[in-house]
Amino acid sequence: MTTAFLGTSAIALYLLGWVAYGLELSNRRRLNSAAVKVLTVAAITLHGFATYQLIFINGGLDLSLLKILALLALVINSLVFLSSLREPINGFYLALFPISVAALVSALLSISTKSTTVIPYSLQAHILTSILAYSFLAIAALQALLVGYQNWQLKHKHQNPLMKTLPALETMERLLFELIWVGQILLTVSLLTGFYVYDDFFAQQLIHKVTFSIVAWLVYAVLLFGRHYYGWRGHRAINWTWVGFSAILLGYLGSKFVIEFILN
Predict the structure, then answer these.
(1) Percentage of residues in the chain with pLDDT exceeding 70?
(2) Which of 90, 126, 158, 214 fits a disulfide with 153 by CB distance 3.0 to 4.6 angstroms?
(3) Could you tell me if 29 and 9 lie in one domain?
(4) Are 226 and 136 in the same domain?
């Protein structure tokens, strides 16, 4: 099957899944949860095949920004699906499915801004660890928004359909910090392996990425320290989570955008 067919099919299923989850949350129609899960798995699977064909070309890797965004969307959707088997966090899909559609459309229509390269396994491991770290921290950022929204709803004594699907606020905050812990560990491994596999950050135009990644690591470290010793939660935890994730966005996506679309 061609990349365009796989990508288009995934886009169609994502849009159908978005409508299905929206109807389920609005209580306008009760959907068979098993059928919705199958739809989600099918969309993610087709997304995976399309992304594989977009990135792995002629024995090398196309690591241009828009192809990486499609890969990040794939990893995030997969992680959320696995987490949803344990916690009711299907509400994430209302934001993730449109983002995934945009990422796939951009990747399918884009002309590569980076030449295909054959890279050693050590560098591939570093890239994989980095993508997993960014994905977990991106989910944590979305989780922080949900926690903030849930906290606001409880304070104002509102109870909309989305609120009814969420677990208790304490459970949501616990899940938030679990995601941050995993993301922080992976980010640590990513930084350590990066210092090992790269010889010259300046020559390889990576100094901005490394700098912002270290800033993000410090922000998350302070947040986890504050949570453990001072019980940080609520708006303080949400704000620190988004400060750290903003550094990640500036360091990785911002740097790649400037290098590939402006300096190039």
Answers:
(1) 82
(2) 158
(3) yes
(4) yes
Dihedral angle sign, alpha carbons of residues 134, 80, 226, 249: positive
3-state secondary structure of 159: coil
pLDDT tens string 101-126: 999 999 998 876 555 566 677 777 78
Residue 234 CA to residue 179 CA, distance in Å, equals 16
Rounded distance, CA 20 to CA 237, Å? 32
Could you tell me which of 179, 185, 182 has the C-alpha nearest to residue 238?
Answer: 179
Domain stop point among 118, 152, 181: 118
116: left (phi over 0), alpha (psi -120 to 50) or beta: beta
* Greatest alpha-carbon span in the chain: 57
> Predicted confidence band at 169 (pLDDT cuts at 50, 70, 90)?
confident
Q: 141 is written with which tokens?
A: 């950022």
Task: Say which amino acid occupies 228.
Answer: H
**pLDDT over 80 at 236, yes or no:** yes
Distance separating alpha carbons of residues 183 and 170, to the nearest angstrom: 20
Residues 61 and 137 occupy one common structural domain:
no
For residues 147 and 172, the answer to whether their CB atoms sit within 8 Å is: yes
91 and 170 together in one domain? no
Phi, psi of 244 (to 5 degrees): -65, -45
Q: Roughly what angle, to the nearest 10 degrees, separates helices 33-55 and 3-26?
A: 150
Residue 78, Cβ neighbours under 10 Å: how many? 16
Q: How confident is the model at residue 184 (pLDDT cuts 50, 70, 90)?
A: very high
pLDDT tens, 146-163? 888 888 887 877 666 666
Structure tokens, 117: 């390269």
Taking only the tens place, the pLDDT of each residue in 30-53 is 555 777 888 999 999 999 999 999
Q: Phi, psi (5° rounding) for residue 148?
A: -60, -45
